[in-house]
Structures are given as C-alpha cells and as structure tokens.
Amino acid sequence: MRQEVHQAMRFPARSLLALAAGLLVLVPATGAQAANTYWLEFCQAAANRSVEGFAAVQDRGLITRKDCREAGAVREGLMVRTARDTISGRRRAEVRYRDVAALVFQAPPGTVIKTVRWGGRPWRNSCDWLPQLRIMDEHQPAVKNELLAGRSRDNKRCSDSEVGAARPPRIRRYAVLGNPKYDVPRPKYLVQRVLCVNRRGCALGSRPQAFIVTENLRLEIVDEQGPSQLAVTGGDLFGGWINSDRTLTYTAADDGSGIKTVRAVNDQGAQIGVSSQSCLFTRPVPCTNGAGSLGIDIGQARQGTQNVALQAFDAADNATGLVHAGTMHVDTIAPGAADVSVDGGNAWRNTATHTLRWSNADNAGDVAPITGVRYRACPKGTRCDATPASASSTDQLTIDAPPGETDISLWRVDAA
After folding, report:
1. What is the mean pLDDT of each run of 10 residues along the chain (416 residues)?
2. What distance lies between CA 224 and its chain's CA centroid?
3. Residue pair 95/155 in contact by the 8 Å Cβ criterion
4. I need a labelling partner for 141 at 20 to 30 A (CA). Which of 30, 324, 358, 371 fits?
C-alpha cells in the first residue's frame, strides 16, 4: 500500500479570546502643554436655539426668561427685564434700590472666557434702571469686573438722550482675556442684568421699564487642563495571540469640557484604534464623560508582541499622557508549508498505521506557536472532510489509512 503525503497548506489562524484585566489609572493633566480653546454657541448662534448654561437670579419685580425660538423676533432671546404693574387705581409697585435680576454664565472648572461675541441690546425707559452685560473675574468678581454693554456706573450722569432709544442689535466682539482694557485677569462669569439704581426705589409701569436681551452669543473658552482620568476597564485584546480586530473598553473624564476622543497606539506610535464622541457645543461642558469603547484595527498594528497605550483628548484637544493598557500579541500570518516525512517511506506496505513527522523550526521567533494540526486522508482522486488532531500532535501525527492509495493533506494551526 502506498501513501501520498502532501505538504502543509496555509490554514486560517484560530483566535483565542481573553478579557483584559481591569486597570485603574488616574492621569494628571499635561502641565507643559499650552491651553487650547473651543467655542460655545447660545441662542440664535446655535441651530437648536440653546439656552443651556445660564443660571437665573431675580428679586421681586424683576423677570428673567430664556426663550430663543424665533430669529429676529422682537425681544426674543436671553431676556432680563422689569415686571409689569397692570393694576390701576393705586400707587405703582416699586423695586428696592440695588435689587437685581440676572442671567449668569459660569465657565466650567479649569476654564476661563477668552472672547465674547454678543448680539443683543440694552434698553431703559428712565435713569432709575441699569441694563448691563458684564464680565467678572474668577477670584474677585465684585472687584474685578468690567462692563461690556449697557449703561455705566451708578453715579454716571443720565441724560434724556440715553433713555427710550431702541437701537437695532448688532454683533459685538470683546477680547477679554489678557486685555488691559478690561483688567479682568481670569474672566469666569458673563452676567447680563437689570439693576435698580435709584436710592428711593424704582417704580414699575404698565410696560417694562428696562431690559437687556441677548439674541446671539458665542463664547471662546480657554481650557487650561487636560483630562483628569483615563482607565482601561476591559475588552478582548489581551491574554493570547490574535489575528482579528478586537475591542477595548475604558472610562475617561475631563472636568472642563469633557472627552472628545480616545485613541490607542502601539509602542511604535502607530494609531491602531480611535473613538470619537458626539460633542454638543451649546452646552457648557460640550462632551460627555464616563465609559466608552474603541475598536482595535489589527491591520494597523505590526506583527508580534507590542505594548498598547491609550490617550484621551478633551473638547479643546488637550491630551493626557500615554496610559499603558496592556500587551498584545499579533500574528495574522498562517504557518507556512513544512517538509513532511512518513516513517518507512512512501512505498507500499501491509499495515494501515502510518506516522507522519515534520519540523516546526521555521515557526520560531515572535510568532504564535504551533498548537495542533488538521488533516485530510482521502482515497486517491476524491475529496473528504478535514479532521482535527489531538493538541499534542504538533510535530508528528499517526493515522490509519484504508487499503489502496490515499492522499493525505495536513495543516499546522497556531495559537492565533
């Protein structure tokens, strides 16, 4: 009986899945990196007419309203105004001296306001009232603050020409950070307010006596810090040899602007995965924080063993350092053909048992080790199914063949 032995053929590598061990790594901001900026948009500057980010403060007789529904509508927007006194036959209601209504934007932690682009208008019917838009300092808001729009200090002389004029709104640009004109070292708050400045009190009328309205607002925010947290929490990337794409899960946070992007790189600096978040720049913190996942593109990695690190970026593109995630082992190339010999040679014999031997010396180095074989023993000229051999059969295989000529094909299988 004669055996024909074919050389080993390429065989798709098998994958071993392993869950990455959880890591908890807190990453400080990259202090040497220059602070970056991003823009926030509110009211009619944003497609969704956003009014998020403004806190309301109001005393009795004064009103705040956040309504940006219609572009160009009269007095629609972020509104601060006096109330109406519609009851006739008695003395008009009054607002006490220094009572105020305000809408206040506060820049998120670790950020300050760099530029204000404001479209709106202040208006008053008498000198009893001050409608104002002010920028205020983070540490000394009562001392370090400057007027951007509206009427000036309480003791400024008020003339008839200053009241009752309804000027059309226009976009004004105020570069406030580092500008000696304003002398506000750390602009943190944008405040639009209406204030009673008559020491005897301010009378209300059947119509609003003063208002300030913001119809279009864009704020350039300086984010001075990188993300504060980045941790790998799991996935199926680590723990064994792989030959297909994988996933890593993580948690990341940035107090100032949230997490915009997390990427994975190998030890040669090649980017092998990225996850980009949907950020909404009509919120004070535009990007979300918390758990996420990213796909690892094995085609971007090199063959062999390599370290993997994660890096997170906030909305202003401030970055963390590289955080070690783990070590992955990549082998996408199937074992090559090996020379196979048959004990006793290929001559005819009178026994059905045959032992095949080969060497795995060609599979040395930083590659997935051989873990088994698959073989097909078919009567000559026919096709039949392949059979997996025992995992211990890595360099030899003993099989029984039927009488006659038999074609034997064998494939080595590695750990990937």
Report:
1. 33 26 32 70 86 91 83 68 73 85 96 96 90 95 90 56 58 94 95 94 90 94 95 91 95 96 96 95 95 95 96 96 95 89 84 89 92 87 82 84 85 90
2. 17
3. no
4. 30
The residue with tokens 């061990």 is: 21
Token code pair at residue 262:
């997390």
Query: φ and ψ at 306, to 5 degrees?
Result: -155, 150
The percentage of residues in the chain with a pLDDT greater than 70, rounded to a whole number, is 84
Taking Cα atoms as reference points, which of 310, 373, 215, 299 lies closest to residue 25?
310
CA atoms within 13 A on the CB side of 81: 24
pLDDT digits (tens, 9 = 90+) for 193-212: 999 999 999 999 888 999 99
Q: Which residues on adjacent β-strands are paired with residue 408? A: 5, 377
Taking the C-alpha atoms of residue 42 and residue 51, their distance in angstroms, rounded to an integer, is 6
The single residue listed with the structure tokens 């009054």 is 94
Instruction: Tell me the whole-structure pTM to 2 decimals.
Output: 0.79
Strand 241-242 and strand 370-379: the pairing is: unpaired
> Which of these, 360, 347, 356, 368, lies nearest to 397 by C-alpha position?
356
b/e sequence 345-366, b meaning 16+ C-beta within 10 Å: eeeeeeeeebebebeeeebeee
Beta-strand pair 323-330/241-242: parallel
pLDDT at res. 85: 79
If you search the block for the tokens 């010999």, which residue do you land on? Answer: 341
Q: In a 3-state reduction of DSSP, which class is residue 320?
A: coil
Confirm if 107 and 223 have CB atoms less than 8 A apart: no
DSSP assignments along 203-217, one per residue: E-BSS-SEEEEEEEE
- Cβ-based neighbours of 214, under 8 Å, separated by 6 or more: 42, 43, 77, 78, 79, 103, 118, 119, 120, 133, 192
Phi/psi of residue 297, each to 5°? -90, 100
Within the chain, how many helices (H) and strands (E) appear?
0, 28
Distance CA 410, CA 338 (A): 10
CA distance 398 to 231: 50
Are 360 and 395 contacting, i.e. CB atoms less than 8 angstroms apart? yes
Taking only Cα atoms into account, the Rg of the chain, rounded to an integer number of angstroms, comes to 37
Cα–Cα distance between 174 and 118 in angstroms, integer?
8
DSSP letter, residue 161 = G
